[in-house]
Amino acid sequence: MPRFLARAKVGSMETLREIAAIIAGYVSKDGFHTTPIERVTLVRSSTVTMPMPNVYRPQLCLVAQGQKEVTLGDRVFRYAPGRYGVVTYDLPATGHVIEATPDKPYLCLYLDFDPGTLGDLALRVPPAPGAPSPPIGKMVSDAGAGLLDAALRLLRLLDDPAALPVLGPLAEQEILYHLLAGPDGARMRHITSSQGRVAQVGRAIAWIGKNFRERFSIERLATEVGMSPSSLHEHFRAVTALTPLQFQKQLRLQDARSLMLVENIDVTTAALRVGYESPSQFSREYRRHFGEPPARDIARLRASPDLAVRA
Protein backbone atom coordinates (compact mmCIF):
# COMPACT_ATOMS: atom_id res chain seq x y z
CA MET A 1 0.00 0.00 0.00
CA PRO A 2 1.44 3.45 -0.92
CA ARG A 3 2.56 5.44 2.10
CA PHE A 4 0.04 8.26 1.60
CA LEU A 5 -2.82 5.75 1.43
CA ALA A 6 -1.60 4.09 4.61
CA ARG A 7 -1.53 7.48 6.38
CA ALA A 8 -5.05 8.24 5.14
CA LYS A 9 -6.30 4.89 6.45
CA VAL A 10 -4.70 5.47 9.85
CA GLY A 11 -6.24 8.95 9.96
CA SER A 12 -9.69 7.59 9.17
CA MET A 13 -9.35 4.95 11.89
CA GLU A 14 -8.42 7.63 14.41
CA THR A 15 -11.41 9.72 13.33
CA LEU A 16 -13.68 6.71 13.69
CA ARG A 17 -12.36 6.00 17.18
CA GLU A 18 -13.09 9.59 18.21
CA ILE A 19 -16.62 9.34 16.78
CA ALA A 20 -17.15 6.16 18.81
CA ALA A 21 -15.76 7.80 21.95
CA ILE A 22 -18.14 10.77 21.62
CA ILE A 23 -21.15 8.48 21.13
CA ALA A 24 -20.10 6.29 24.07
CA GLY A 25 -19.61 9.35 26.25
CA TYR A 26 -23.00 10.79 25.35
CA VAL A 27 -25.12 7.62 25.69
CA SER A 28 -24.54 5.30 28.65
CA LYS A 29 -27.63 3.10 28.22
CA ASP A 30 -28.68 0.82 25.38
CA GLY A 31 -31.28 2.11 22.97
CA PHE A 32 -32.02 5.06 20.71
CA HIS A 33 -31.19 8.53 22.05
CA THR A 34 -32.23 11.86 20.58
CA THR A 35 -29.71 14.70 20.75
CA PRO A 36 -29.74 18.51 20.74
CA ILE A 37 -28.66 18.22 17.10
CA GLU A 38 -31.84 18.20 15.05
CA ARG A 39 -32.40 14.96 13.09
CA VAL A 40 -29.43 13.20 14.77
CA THR A 41 -30.04 10.06 16.86
CA LEU A 42 -27.35 8.02 18.60
CA VAL A 43 -27.64 4.27 19.16
CA ARG A 44 -25.97 1.95 21.66
CA SER A 45 -26.31 -1.78 22.23
CA SER A 46 -24.10 -3.75 24.61
CA THR A 47 -25.38 -7.12 23.33
CA VAL A 48 -26.30 -8.75 20.06
CA THR A 49 -30.01 -8.39 19.33
CA MET A 50 -32.74 -10.48 17.76
CA PRO A 51 -33.84 -9.56 14.21
CA MET A 52 -36.35 -6.72 14.50
CA PRO A 53 -38.47 -5.67 11.52
CA ASN A 54 -39.05 -1.95 11.25
CA VAL A 55 -39.77 0.77 8.71
CA TYR A 56 -36.55 2.64 7.97
CA ARG A 57 -36.94 6.30 7.05
CA PRO A 58 -34.81 8.22 4.53
CA GLN A 59 -31.63 8.63 6.52
CA LEU A 60 -27.91 8.01 6.92
CA CYS A 61 -26.68 5.35 9.34
CA LEU A 62 -22.96 5.43 10.16
CA VAL A 63 -21.56 2.63 12.32
CA ALA A 64 -18.66 3.60 14.56
CA GLN A 65 -18.24 0.37 16.53
CA GLY A 66 -19.64 -3.15 16.36
CA GLN A 67 -21.54 -4.70 13.47
CA LYS A 68 -25.12 -5.19 12.34
CA GLU A 69 -27.04 -6.75 9.46
CA VAL A 70 -30.12 -5.41 7.70
CA THR A 71 -32.27 -7.54 5.41
CA LEU A 72 -34.42 -5.94 2.71
CA GLY A 73 -36.36 -8.47 0.68
CA ASP A 74 -33.76 -10.98 -0.51
CA ARG A 75 -30.83 -8.59 0.01
CA VAL A 76 -28.61 -8.62 3.11
CA PHE A 77 -26.49 -5.58 4.03
CA ARG A 78 -23.68 -5.78 6.58
CA TYR A 79 -22.45 -2.77 8.52
CA ALA A 80 -19.03 -2.68 10.15
CA PRO A 81 -17.06 0.20 11.70
CA GLY A 82 -16.61 2.91 9.08
CA ARG A 83 -19.45 1.69 6.87
CA TYR A 84 -22.58 3.69 6.28
CA GLY A 85 -26.00 2.99 4.85
CA VAL A 86 -28.28 5.31 2.93
CA VAL A 87 -32.04 4.78 2.86
CA THR A 88 -33.91 6.83 0.27
CA TYR A 89 -37.53 5.74 0.91
CA ASP A 90 -39.62 4.46 3.80
CA LEU A 91 -38.72 0.77 3.60
CA PRO A 92 -39.74 -2.23 5.74
CA ALA A 93 -36.52 -4.03 6.62
CA THR A 94 -35.21 -6.28 9.38
CA GLY A 95 -32.09 -5.33 11.32
CA HIS A 96 -30.11 -6.79 14.20
CA VAL A 97 -26.81 -6.19 15.96
CA ILE A 98 -24.43 -9.09 15.34
CA GLU A 99 -21.32 -7.87 17.18
CA ALA A 100 -21.42 -6.09 20.54
CA THR A 101 -20.22 -6.60 24.11
CA PRO A 102 -20.57 -4.57 27.32
CA ASP A 103 -16.89 -3.56 27.01
CA LYS A 104 -17.18 -2.74 23.30
CA PRO A 105 -20.81 -1.92 22.51
CA TYR A 106 -22.36 -1.36 19.11
CA LEU A 107 -22.41 2.39 18.43
CA CYS A 108 -23.84 4.31 15.51
CA LEU A 109 -25.43 7.58 14.51
CA TYR A 110 -28.51 8.24 12.42
CA LEU A 111 -29.06 11.44 10.46
CA ASP A 112 -32.56 11.87 9.07
CA PHE A 113 -32.52 13.61 5.71
CA ASP A 114 -34.14 17.01 5.42
CA PRO A 115 -35.65 17.10 1.88
CA GLY A 116 -35.37 20.90 1.63
CA THR A 117 -31.68 21.03 2.51
CA LEU A 118 -30.94 18.01 0.36
CA GLY A 119 -32.86 19.41 -2.62
CA ASP A 120 -31.01 22.72 -2.44
CA LEU A 121 -27.63 21.02 -2.30
CA ALA A 122 -28.51 18.62 -5.11
CA LEU A 123 -28.93 21.63 -7.42
CA ARG A 124 -25.47 22.92 -6.53
CA VAL A 125 -23.41 19.73 -6.31
CA PRO A 126 -22.45 18.25 -9.70
CA PRO A 127 -23.25 14.53 -10.05
CA ALA A 128 -20.29 12.19 -9.66
CA PRO A 129 -18.92 10.86 -12.97
CA GLY A 130 -19.71 7.32 -14.04
CA ALA A 131 -22.79 5.24 -14.66
CA PRO A 132 -25.92 6.05 -12.63
CA SER A 133 -26.34 3.86 -9.56
CA PRO A 134 -29.21 1.37 -9.47
CA PRO A 135 -32.43 2.74 -7.96
CA ILE A 136 -32.55 0.38 -4.97
CA GLY A 137 -33.74 2.28 -1.91
CA LYS A 138 -30.94 1.06 0.37
CA MET A 139 -27.21 0.52 -0.01
CA VAL A 140 -24.19 0.20 2.28
CA SER A 141 -20.78 1.71 1.44
CA ASP A 142 -17.40 2.47 3.00
CA ALA A 143 -17.18 5.98 4.43
CA GLY A 144 -14.42 8.15 3.03
CA ALA A 145 -12.24 10.47 5.10
CA GLY A 146 -14.31 13.52 4.16
CA LEU A 147 -17.57 11.99 5.35
CA LEU A 148 -16.01 10.78 8.61
CA ASP A 149 -14.44 14.19 9.27
CA ALA A 150 -17.79 15.91 8.70
CA ALA A 151 -19.58 13.49 11.04
CA LEU A 152 -16.94 14.08 13.71
CA ARG A 153 -17.32 17.87 13.42
CA LEU A 154 -21.07 17.53 13.85
CA LEU A 155 -20.77 15.32 16.93
CA ARG A 156 -18.18 17.58 18.57
CA LEU A 157 -20.90 20.24 18.71
CA LEU A 158 -22.64 18.21 21.43
CA ASP A 159 -20.05 19.74 23.79
CA ASP A 160 -20.46 23.25 22.37
CA PRO A 161 -24.14 24.25 22.65
CA ALA A 162 -23.36 27.90 21.91
CA ALA A 163 -21.89 27.01 18.50
CA LEU A 164 -24.47 24.36 17.64
CA PRO A 165 -27.15 26.65 16.12
CA VAL A 166 -24.58 28.22 13.80
CA LEU A 167 -22.21 25.37 12.96
CA GLY A 168 -24.67 22.48 13.17
CA PRO A 169 -26.42 23.20 9.85
CA LEU A 170 -23.04 23.70 8.16
CA ALA A 171 -21.73 20.33 9.40
CA GLU A 172 -24.96 18.64 8.30
CA GLN A 173 -24.64 20.20 4.84
CA GLU A 174 -21.02 18.99 4.66
CA ILE A 175 -22.19 15.43 5.35
CA LEU A 176 -24.86 15.71 2.65
CA TYR A 177 -22.31 17.15 0.25
CA HIS A 178 -20.04 14.12 0.62
CA LEU A 179 -23.00 11.79 0.08
CA LEU A 180 -24.16 13.67 -3.03
CA ALA A 181 -20.64 13.89 -4.47
CA GLY A 182 -19.82 10.27 -3.69
CA PRO A 183 -20.85 6.87 -5.05
CA ASP A 184 -24.36 7.17 -3.56
CA GLY A 185 -25.00 10.59 -5.09
CA ALA A 186 -27.36 9.40 -7.81
CA ARG A 187 -29.36 7.41 -5.26
CA MET A 188 -29.52 10.44 -2.95
CA ARG A 189 -30.91 12.56 -5.77
CA HIS A 190 -33.88 10.18 -6.07
CA ILE A 191 -35.15 11.65 -2.77
CA THR A 192 -35.52 15.09 -4.33
CA SER A 193 -36.74 14.05 -7.78
CA SER A 194 -40.39 14.48 -8.72
CA GLN A 195 -40.02 13.06 -12.23
CA GLY A 196 -39.40 9.64 -13.74
CA ARG A 197 -40.13 6.04 -12.80
CA VAL A 198 -38.24 6.11 -9.51
CA ALA A 199 -40.24 9.14 -8.37
CA GLN A 200 -43.45 7.31 -9.29
CA VAL A 201 -42.30 4.34 -7.22
CA GLY A 202 -41.69 6.76 -4.35
CA ARG A 203 -45.28 7.92 -4.63
CA ALA A 204 -46.45 4.28 -4.69
CA ILE A 205 -44.47 3.59 -1.49
CA ALA A 206 -46.04 6.62 0.19
CA TRP A 207 -49.54 5.58 -0.96
CA ILE A 208 -49.15 2.06 0.43
CA GLY A 209 -47.79 3.53 3.67
CA LYS A 210 -51.04 5.45 4.13
CA ASN A 211 -53.40 2.72 2.93
CA PHE A 212 -51.76 -0.59 3.86
CA ARG A 213 -54.64 -1.62 6.12
CA GLU A 214 -57.04 -1.50 3.15
CA ARG A 215 -57.33 -4.08 0.39
CA PHE A 216 -56.14 -2.83 -3.00
CA SER A 217 -55.11 -4.20 -6.37
CA ILE A 218 -51.96 -3.59 -8.37
CA GLU A 219 -54.18 -2.05 -11.04
CA ARG A 220 -55.56 0.50 -8.59
CA LEU A 221 -52.10 1.37 -7.25
CA ALA A 222 -50.75 1.72 -10.80
CA THR A 223 -53.58 4.12 -11.63
CA GLU A 224 -52.87 6.17 -8.49
CA VAL A 225 -49.25 6.78 -9.55
CA GLY A 226 -49.72 6.92 -13.34
CA MET A 227 -47.94 3.70 -14.33
CA SER A 228 -48.93 0.47 -16.04
CA PRO A 229 -49.24 -2.53 -13.68
CA SER A 230 -46.29 -4.32 -15.30
CA SER A 231 -44.05 -1.25 -15.15
CA LEU A 232 -45.01 -0.58 -11.53
CA HIS A 233 -44.24 -4.17 -10.55
CA GLU A 234 -40.83 -4.10 -12.26
CA HIS A 235 -39.65 -0.74 -10.95
CA PHE A 236 -41.14 -1.19 -7.47
CA ARG A 237 -39.20 -4.42 -7.00
CA ALA A 238 -36.01 -2.80 -8.31
CA VAL A 239 -36.26 -0.09 -5.64
CA THR A 240 -37.57 -2.05 -2.64
CA ALA A 241 -36.60 -5.69 -3.39
CA LEU A 242 -40.29 -6.45 -2.75
CA THR A 243 -43.49 -6.57 -4.78
CA PRO A 244 -46.16 -4.01 -3.79
CA LEU A 245 -48.24 -6.72 -2.10
CA GLN A 246 -45.21 -8.07 -0.20
CA PHE A 247 -44.49 -4.50 0.88
CA GLN A 248 -48.06 -4.12 2.13
CA LYS A 249 -47.90 -7.44 3.97
CA GLN A 250 -44.74 -6.49 5.83
CA LEU A 251 -46.26 -3.17 6.92
CA ARG A 252 -49.38 -4.98 8.16
CA LEU A 253 -47.40 -7.55 10.13
CA GLN A 254 -45.13 -4.95 11.69
CA ASP A 255 -48.12 -2.78 12.61
CA ALA A 256 -49.89 -5.76 14.20
CA ARG A 257 -46.76 -6.68 16.18
CA SER A 258 -46.53 -3.12 17.51
CA LEU A 259 -50.22 -3.11 18.46
CA MET A 260 -49.92 -6.36 20.42
CA LEU A 261 -46.69 -5.29 22.12
CA VAL A 262 -47.60 -1.69 22.98
CA GLU A 263 -51.39 -1.76 23.35
CA ASN A 264 -51.57 -5.32 24.72
CA ILE A 265 -54.39 -6.37 22.38
CA ASP A 266 -55.09 -9.98 21.43
CA VAL A 267 -54.06 -11.70 18.20
CA THR A 268 -57.50 -11.67 16.54
CA THR A 269 -58.10 -7.98 17.26
CA ALA A 270 -54.67 -7.05 15.92
CA ALA A 271 -55.21 -9.12 12.77
CA LEU A 272 -58.56 -7.49 12.02
CA ARG A 273 -57.32 -4.00 12.81
CA VAL A 274 -54.47 -4.14 10.28
CA GLY A 275 -56.70 -5.49 7.52
CA TYR A 276 -56.67 -9.29 7.73
CA GLU A 277 -60.02 -10.99 7.29
CA SER A 278 -58.75 -14.36 8.53
CA PRO A 279 -56.94 -14.54 11.89
CA SER A 280 -55.59 -17.99 10.95
CA GLN A 281 -54.02 -16.61 7.76
CA PHE A 282 -52.57 -13.77 9.81
CA SER A 283 -51.01 -16.22 12.28
CA ARG A 284 -49.50 -18.29 9.45
CA GLU A 285 -47.97 -15.26 7.74
CA TYR A 286 -46.82 -13.81 11.07
CA ARG A 287 -44.98 -17.03 11.91
CA ARG A 288 -43.28 -17.13 8.48
CA HIS A 289 -42.16 -13.51 8.85
CA PHE A 290 -41.14 -13.39 12.52
CA GLY A 291 -40.24 -17.05 13.09
CA GLU A 292 -42.77 -17.75 15.85
CA PRO A 293 -46.56 -17.59 16.36
CA PRO A 294 -47.83 -14.15 17.46
CA ALA A 295 -48.44 -14.92 21.14
CA ARG A 296 -45.09 -16.66 21.61
CA ASP A 297 -43.22 -13.90 19.76
CA ILE A 298 -44.76 -11.14 21.88
CA ALA A 299 -44.01 -13.08 25.08
CA ARG A 300 -40.38 -13.45 23.99
CA LEU A 301 -40.06 -9.73 23.28
CA ARG A 302 -41.49 -8.83 26.69
CA ALA A 303 -39.20 -11.30 28.45
CA SER A 304 -36.01 -10.10 26.71
CA PRO A 305 -36.36 -6.37 26.00
CA ASP A 306 -32.59 -5.92 25.69
CA LEU A 307 -32.51 -8.30 22.71
CA ALA A 308 -35.28 -6.41 20.93
CA VAL A 309 -33.43 -3.14 20.37
CA ARG A 310 -33.81 -2.05 16.76
CA ALA A 311 -30.49 -1.71 14.96
Automatic annotation (TrEMBL):
SMART domains: HTH_ARAC
InterPro entries hit by this protein: Homeodomain-like_sf, HTH-like, HTH_AraC, HTH_AraC-typ_CS, Tscrpt_reg_HTH_AraC_N
The HTH araC/xylS-type domain, residue ranges: 202-300
Keyword Hydrolase tagged: no
Transcription regulation keyword on record: yes
SUPFAM superfamilies reported in the protein's UniProt record: Homeodomain-like, Regulatory protein AraC
Signal peptide: none
GO molecular function: DNA-binding transcription factor activity; sequence-specific DNA binding
Keywords assigned by UniProt, alphabetized: DNA-binding, Transcription, Transcription regulation
Record-linked Pfam families: AraC_N (PF06719), HTH_18 (PF12833)
Domain of life: Bacteria
PANTHER family: ARAC-FAMILY TRANSCRIPTIONAL REGULATOR, TRANSCRIPTIONAL REGULATORY PROTEIN
Protein name: Transcriptional regulator, AraC family
